[in-house]
Amino acid sequence: MFYKRLFPNVLIQGASPNFFRGLQRRVMAVLWLERAPCDTYLDLILVPSDQMQSINQLTRGHCKPTDALTFSEVNETNQSINNILFSCTNDVLEQNDDSDLTSSPVLFYPPSTKTDHLPTRRALRSELVDLGKIYICVEYIWRRAMRLPLKNLPLELYLEAVLVHALLHGLGYTHETEEALWRMIRRERRIGYHLRSLQRKYPLDMPPMDVVEYMKMILRK
Fold it and tell me: How confident is the model at residue 112, as a pLDDT?
């Protein structure tokens, strides 16, 4: 599939080899489906629960991990997050293993990028070059899927839904109004349909995300 050669400025950090391959193909596919510019910049960073909790505390005041956070502007908040991720100190907040796993997944869209209107996709694309940073906590998603299997999607579908939701936020979608929410939901469903279709048609080019390999990697650290 030709879209694999697009988006050279999209960087994925923290993934194990096989997990990286499946994750990268889905990121590229979503950007291609959304007609993002080929020179789009995006950093997608996988973080463990303790770092995600620290980022969530810093940016939203919630002292618990979450599945994904999207920041589509470079600002002081991003610099503070970088200090959490790459500091040599260990002054991160203690992880709460009993965090609320019964609530719906929460994905954050920074207030500074809210709009009161719904721009067209063409207008959005003309402005999209740097999509910012997305932080995803696979460990949190794993725990939710394992502890509450009847209340969540199967693991890979859950992870894929989180990824699509976070990417759409980076691409300018919001859910601040009912109209915007349903617009985003419809787009998520459509992208999910396309991703599953690509997996059926091109299984070698759209491999599964090897979450087990990734979890083994982070548990060894």
Answer: 39
